[in-house]
Amino acid sequence: MIATSAAGPALRVVVVNGSPNRPSKTMGLVDVILATLAEMMPIQTSRIDVYELGPEFTGVVEREQVSPGVEAALKLAENADLLIAAIPVFRGSYPGMFKHFFDLVDQYALAGRLVLLAATGGGEHHALVLEHALRPLFGFFQALTVPVAVFAAAADFDGTILLNPRVHGRIQMALTDVADLLRTRAPATAAH
Questions:
Q1: In three state form, how does the secondary structure of the chain look?
Q2: Phi, psi at 15, each rounded to 5°
Q3: Tens digit of pLDDT per residue, the chain (192 long)?
Q4: Structural domain count of the chain
Q5: What is the extent of the structural domain holding 54?
Q6: For a disulfide at 126, which of 1, 11, 89, 94, Cβ 3.0-4.6 Å?
């Protein structure tokens, strides 16, 4: 499923949600990230829920086999100004459907694109997924992962509402990095 909202000329932010749960702590974390980013700059947001893409997604092995809806989701992710990769930790890594989505992304489509890494897990030890699984995945694509990644543990939430001020501070740090990276890239983009 793809959900979109917009408000004028804005940064195109695409969330790839790897959580199978509705609602989820992962999307609770992403909601805070998006709200904080919207306070900093105009954004247009889209969300791809990989677990809702259906059998035309789960049953394919090659990009050429995907349905038009799945192709649209892949293109949306490939053309984001900022991609937010959001996962719950599952057995020490990202969920299989999340990885399957990126198995279908063109190898060079994310080269140089900004990617913010976000994850939720049962405890602080799950935060390692950011550096040991997610960052290498996007390194393969030659994406520019934001230096500060965001992790929230189950204890940081009341249901799906993020409460921990430390995590809110980390989100602010990560998005300051996003804003700085966008500013340094703007002159190069304007020259094209």
A1: CEEEECCCCCEEEEEEECCCCCCCHHHHHHHHHHHHHHHHCCEEEEEEEHHHCCHHHHCCCCHHHCCHHHHHHHHHHHCCCEEEEEEECECCECCHHHHHHHHHCCCCCCCCCEEEEEEEECCHHHHHHHHHHHHHHHHHCCCEECCCCEEEEHHHEECCEECCHHHHHHHHHHHHHHHHHHHHHHHHHHCC
A2: -100, 125
A3: 555 554 447 999 999 999 999 999 999 999 999 999 999 999 999 999 999 999 989 999 999 999 999 999 999 999 999 999 999 998 889 999 999 999 999 999 999 999 999 999 999 989 999 999 999 999 999 999 999 999 999 999 999 999 999 999 999 999 999 999 998 876 544 444
A4: 1
A5: 2-190
A6: 89
Shortest CA distance to 17 belongs to which of 34, 33, 1? 1
Q: How far apart are CA 83 and CA 68, in angstroms?
A: 21
**Interatomic CA distance for residues 146 and 105, integer angstroms:** 20
* Beta-strand pair 43-49/2-5: antiparallel
Residues, the chain: 192
- CATH code of 65's domain: 3.40.50.360
Distance set, CA 81 to CA 60, 173, 182 (Å): 27, 19, 9
